[in-house]
Amino acid sequence: MLKKLVIVGVGLIGGSFAMALRNTNMVERIVGVGRSWENLSSALGTYVIDAAETNAVNAVADADLVVLAVPVGQMGGIMQEIAPVLSSHTVITDVGSTKQDVIELAMRYMPEHLERFVPGHPIAGAERSGVKAATDSLFQDKNVILTPLPETSDDARNLVKELWQKCGAIVHEMPPKVHDQIFAAVSHLPHVLAYALVADIAARPNASDLFQFAAGGFRDFTRIASSSPEMWRDICLANRDAMVVELDSYLAQVNRMRDAIIKGDGIALQQIFDAARNARNAWISGGSK
Amino acid sequence: MLKKLVIVGVGLIGGSFAMALRNTNMVERIVGVGRSWENLSSALGTYVIDAAETNAVNAVADADLVVLAVPVGQMGGIMQEIAPVLSSHTVITDVGSTKQDVIELAMRYMPEHLERFVPGHPIAGAERSGVKAATDSLFQDKNVILTPLPETSDDARNLVKELWQKCGAIVHEMPPKVHDQIFAAVSHLPHVLAYALVADIAARPNASDLFQFAAGGFRDFTRIASSSPEMWRDICLANRDAMVVELDSYLAQVNRMRDAIIKGDGIALQQIFDAARNARNAWISGGSK
């Protein structure tokens, strides 16, 4: 039983984690920290949190667990603020989409707390944001990645793991570098590619004609281009090295297809299309996607 | 009232057109032409068509309207077959995703019928295919583009236009070159880009790890990579010139974003992401997408 859970950043992820944990009866009191009173009072009004604070320093005293659920770009500032006042029993975790950079921040700003720091990343959420989009089932059957440090204690790791499992999540552990490579490929790259297509089309003199005739395929391909620009800017910069590797691999693939189109090489094109369709269909049929 | 409508290729598009037209009571008899008896008997069994033929030549005699609803790669062969037996009153239309190449085929293979040829493209359909996916509401509120030739008569054009409108579609006319440019940008390019991402990832040694952690954003981005490889190969080759223009514009955009990531230029990245999100949200809020 946790007496006090502090969620810094009561948005879609932080709010949903609070709601899911409340259902488990493993938490006595949930304190939300945020920059906007509007969002915090919405979280209070819907009983997502029991108390609200705009100052993280005031909130974290005596916390059993602090969850950092702010954009990656704000993570360092928060760590620096709270490090001096964290109790020696407080476990800290985060939900950032990149892990190597969050770990670097933790080593710089709260080196005395690494034993109780469990870096994490729930694979959930959508282009919606804010606590109004939060739901207690957001993590049901979703993957959560933990990337513990060599310093992280088993107790801290097991606590965070258990809490995510109680929220219905499937918990995996892997090294932070592997995490960042995997998500550069399957998440960060597609976001950049979707933003690129819409930005490219929106900049044309005939953009309104183009959008008029864009249909369902375009809509789904570009859905993630409605995501938070601030969040994805931070992710691209935080995961720069892996992003460039993925971009170069992808650009090489597109250039091979461009060559095949120019040469009229239908056999090469169809081989690529077949390989892609077969792989995607096998993936889709492998589970609920 | 049409006494005889012939649909060559009773798949998703051809079958749905037949079903929608039957509801209008504007057609007396619908004959389906196909390569596969399995598909044709399914179409017969569900009353999508009244009669089935595997030979287009036998089917088209005395037809009032012939709809060519086969992949673009098969269009020329069919035209060549039926041209000698088409009646002098038969109107011909097609549903091909590219228009300049279909028109070139018509000029080559049925030059004596151009007065009654109305090239068309309904913007509907999905990665599903076959008559079993057909529905009489597929074209409701969907755009249909007609790209008439200088030779096309007003009577033929008006007939085809009226039929599509009776199916619930919104009919537009534009030059074939403009059509091919627009759909290279908003449809053909995204298909190539989605196939490229899945093919790139499927070829990795750690592909199974990557797919294991791919989530909803990846699923929607790549949905169109489950489309028919044969159809999309034909489209890429048929619309080669416009495709290369679009690919190069897109690659330049992605390279600008790659540069910004390498330089750590968060301002430039966020400008692009903001422009894309704003454009997409404006598009989505403009109507049912």
TrEMBL record, chains A, B:
Keyword Cell wall biogenesis/degradation: no
Protein name: prephenate dehydrogenase
Annotated family: Belongs to the prephenate/arogenate dehydrogenase family.
Superkingdom of this protein's organism: Bacteria
Gene Ontology molecular function: any one: prephenate dehydrogenase (NAD+) activity
Reaction it catalyzes: prephenate + NAD(+) = 3-(4-hydroxyphenyl)pyruvate + CO2 + NADH
InterPro entries for this protein: 6-PGluconate_DH-like_C_sf (IPR008927), NAD(P)-bd_dom_sf (IPR036291), PDH_C (IPR046825), PDH_N (IPR046826), Preph/Arog_dehydrog (IPR050812), Prephen_DH (IPR003099)
Pathway in which the depicted protein is active: Amino-acid biosynthesis; L-tyrosine biosynthesis; (4-hydroxyphenyl)pyruvate from prephenate (NAD(+) route): step 1/1
Entry EC no(s): 1.3.1.12
Residues spanning the signal sequence: none
Organism: Sulfurirhabdus autotrophica
Key word Amino-acid biosynthesis present: yes
Domain (Prephenate/arogenate dehydrogenase): residue spans on this chain: 3-289
One GO term (biological process): tyrosine biosynthetic process
UniProt xrefs under SUPFAM superfamilies: 6-phosphogluconate dehydrogenase C-terminal domain-like (SSF48179), NAD(P)-binding Rossmann-fold domains (SSF51735)
Keywords (A to Z) from UniProt: Amino-acid biosynthesis, Aromatic amino acid biosynthesis, NAD, Oxidoreductase, Tyrosine biosynthesis
